[in-house]
Amino acid sequence: MLSRAAVLHRRFATAVRFHAQGVPTEVLKVEDIGLLPKSLGQHEVALKFLAAPVNPADLSMVTGGYGIKAALPAIGGNEGVARVTAVGPAVTSVKVGDRVIPAVAGFGTWRTEAVAKEAEVLAVSDKIPVEYAATLAVNPCTAYRLLADFAKLSKGDVIIQNGANSAVGQAVIQLAALRGIQTINVIREDQHYGETVEHLKGLGATIVIADHYLGSADFKRLIADLPAPKAAFNCVGGQNGLEITKVLARGGVSVTYGGMAREPVMTSTTALVFNDISLRGFWMTEWAKHAPVEERKAMLSELAELMAQGKLRSWVETHPFSDFDAALEKVVNRSTKRKVVLLME
Amino acid sequence: MLSRAAVLHRRFATAVRFHAQGVPTEVLKVEDIGLLPKSLGQHEVALKFLAAPVNPADLSMVTGGYGIKAALPAIGGNEGVARVTAVGPAVTSVKVGDRVIPAVAGFGTWRTEAVAKEAEVLAVSDKIPVEYAATLAVNPCTAYRLLADFAKLSKGDVIIQNGANSAVGQAVIQLAALRGIQTINVIREDQHYGETVEHLKGLGATIVIADHYLGSADFKRLIADLPAPKAAFNCVGGQNGLEITKVLARGGVSVTYGGMAREPVMTSTTALVFNDISLRGFWMTEWAKHAPVEERKAMLSELAELMAQGKLRSWVETHPFSDFDAALEKVVNRSTKRKVVLLME
Lengths: 345, 345
Known about the structure:
The structure is a homodimer.
Chain A: E1 12-18, H1 24-27, E2 28-35, E3 44-53, H2 56-63, E4 74-75, E5 81-87, E6 99-102, E7 113-117, E8 121-124, H3 130-133, H4 139-149, E9 158-162, H5 167-178, E10 182-187, H6 193-203, E11 207-210, H7 217-223, E12 231-234, H8 238-246, E13 253-256, E14 265-267, H9 269-273, E15 278-281, H10 284-290, H11 293-308, E16 316-320, H12 324-332, E17 339-343
Helix pairs in contact in A: 4-5
InterPro entries (chains A, B): ADH-like_C (IPR013149), ADH-like_N (IPR013154), ER (IPR020843), GroES-like_sf (IPR011032), Mito_Enoyl-ACP_Reductase (IPR051034), NAD(P)-bd_dom_sf (IPR036291)
Family (chains A, B): Belongs to the zinc-containing alcohol dehydrogenase family. Quinone oxidoreductase subfamily.
Domain Enoyl reductase (ER) (chains A, B): 22-342
């Protein structure tokens, strides 16, 4: 016997899938994935997706360069937010009407509907815009962990980061500023440089600097009045990542969470041997696999609350799900600095 | 009133000094450094040097590229062994006739005689050859700490190291073999390649491989039967150091203790982010500054005992102190793979 709630309106679902790994613009196809099942299992939930971002990491998974390989054919997208439309008889952690986000990587969020196990989703605040909820689980959480897990950072301390206008970088700036931690932010100098500097300063950045100044006398003068950074956050690599490790305080740590330059991560023998720095890596997916669910929920609540209060903002642009190809092009061509989020309704 | 033991025979002392930082063959001069003082202070000891090595790190200190800057004019040499010829009235930790090694960096060991504070020397076994005693404090101790402090290594575990025929590398091979730890040893392929391979295998090396094989399919096949290495020891840097981090086990650590290639230390974003490896540095001088003296003494005793038993051998060649220039040339030109040790008597 199934409860009423578990009897689904049978609907067609649409998804963006790939049947082989390859160039995203070639292998990703908007497809009808068929009818949802007629009823839910004991611990299943039915979901109607509201929003999902197109992240660079999602595209790495499509090309095959990511730490997770998808079973093919696969639905793209790892992040998103959905509304619970029905629950199986034994479901206790969420109820119909709740907003949820995937608790696991590789969910396949570029779709209109889904049926999932209760354990595969986490309830999330409905006090924040859907495009914020859809992008809460990876980037703001990565920023949170970077600031929490690698160095003991207190009011007045300094961190340095490259790719500072990335979604993680912007969250780092805001979360650091809320705690009185000063940030040295390295970005590329492009045609939007002035605008980006203003934006990051508006978020609370202490110093914003173009990457070609790294290692220069000007750079040394600019940071001379600040304590040496206790931590560096690197999502670029190559020469840029090397330079930010050279200004670390004795015993400082450089944490890599991305590799936009597609070059090796570098540091100097001198920094490692004589200045006792260390290099670490961070991957939110791996953290989430091992962290107690209560710790993760508490972090998500804290971040959502900051968003609801306007203290943690994201630079987002939204596209209707029906315009998937246009949204994808913007991410592939890096023609926007904003996070690209698909809206499903 | 001075005790009899504290009244010195007044002797001339000879030393190799530099009055300015620069090219070692140009700035290092054998000089008469004058008469020793007529008597010893309460906590002073008089030393007659027996042997001292010429290490690459000593030369870095002469050129100015080392983590310690010498006060000029400075006597070269950080390591060595001396005999205590007289002690001040309050000295308790060593007695006349004892062999001692410097307890501190920057001692200036390229000399025939010295007066030092009791706390600046450590007694050392007289059961081992002087050329072993003179080279005990840095390289074998570095190998000891590399194996002890960075990864939990048990019987059957594997480490990988480059510069494996360095003095540290050879000590790592022997100490690892004594504990049942397997070693993958990367060396350069030069005209002495065959001889070096045989030598390292004779010390207990599991696998010895030329560096140009790193990253190749052959290399992967060669190490396929071993567990993935839990630790990498890097004294080279550049591409070589990058490749050895790529084969580390999940959560493995790469420890840099030298930079012979004079290139940045590199790893990959993938290894850091998806394989959770870390990069650390090790500097014996810094360790010695912070370690309890009893821990250091215990390590020195253990290593000297292994040497006395023939279980820890060094590849050493000796030169009379009067031939300093010839000895220096051999180190500068890297025309020997052996550790170059000066004999003062």
